[in-house]
Write a structure and sequence with these properties.
Elements (H helix, E strand, L loop, with lengths): L1 H19 L15 E7 L11 H13 L2 H4 L5 E3 L8 H4 L14 E2 L5 E3 L2 H4 L24 E2 L21 E2 L22 E6 L2 E2 L6 H24 L1
Parallel strand pairs: 1-3, 5-7
Antiparallel strand pairs: 1-7, 1-8, 2-7, 3-4, 5-6
């Protein structure tokens, strides 16, 4: 009996651990096959804002994304939601509402929650939910968990990253109003902070088409016929 109770307790703990372990949602459930969308997250790790080169921040968030097997499997490109002196966040992420070449698709957290319906919705000053979930699908602690942005609420540059003459702009991952991207809090650019990341455009996978299904059935029937013939020969 003591052994049985130990086994039951171990299984219970394993079940709790399984439930508690989060996993990023990469295909939101409200999408239909073929629907296009983007994903966004706040990085688990932190970095400074010393560089004036946006490529450095894009590399940082890409490395963060690829640390998640689920995100790495998407084969997406990732961009920092951040501005430097030479590029704005909305251009770096391909979400400029004024650019007709930028894909205009809904944006989701890694919990499956939609935070914006379109590019203009992303940059209207409010999002539907805070970007507080990291690349592993785990909510970051909200206290003091600021993210470098260098960006004003409409996606344009404001106190941009790498500016040695000012303290770069930070966003608040606990907020869904304008302070998600433009908080009242600033830090020296050498201070470590999180960053926001957004994916390239993704497409919800479709179901196997009818012709493909018929083809698979045909292959299966041919295989069964061949197996029957070999049995008859024996």
């Amino acid at each position: 009996m003591p052994f049985l109770r130990t086994v039951i307790a171990a299984l219970a703990l394993a079940g709790v651990a399984t439930i508690a372990k989060a996993a990023p949602v990469t295909i939101p459930t409200d999408l239909n096959p073929g629907d296009r969308y983007r994903l966004a997250f706040v990085t688990e790790n932190v970095t400074g804002a010393l560089s004036t080169n946006i490529a450095d921040y894009n590399t940082f968030v890409t490395n963060e994304a690829n640390s998640s097997p689920e995100l790495a499997a998407l084969d997406a490109t990732w961009a920092a939601i951040a501005s430097t002196e030479t590029i704005t966040a909305r251009d770096n992420t391909g979400t400029n509402p004024l650019n007709p070449l930028h894909d205009d698709v809904p944006i989701y957290l890694l919990t499956g929650i939609r935070i914006a319906d379109s590019n203009s919705d992303l940059w209207d000053g409010n999002i539907a939910a805070p970007i507080s979930v990291n690349q592993l699908g785990i909510a970051e602690p909200l206290e003091e968990a600021y993210a470098w942005t260098g960006t004003y609420w409409d996606g344009t540059a404001a106190f941009e990253l790498g500016d040695p003459e000012d303290f770069p702009q930070l966003g608040d991952p606990a907020a869904a109003g304008t302070t998600w991207i433009t908080s009242l809090f600033k830090r020296h650019l050498g201070s470590p902070s999180h960053m926001y990341a957004i994916s390239s455009t993704l497409e919800a996978p479709g179901q196997v088409s009818e012709p493909a299904t018929l083809s698979l059935i045909g292959v299966g029937l041919a295989g069964l016929a061949g197996l029957r013939q070999r049995r008859l020969v024996r």
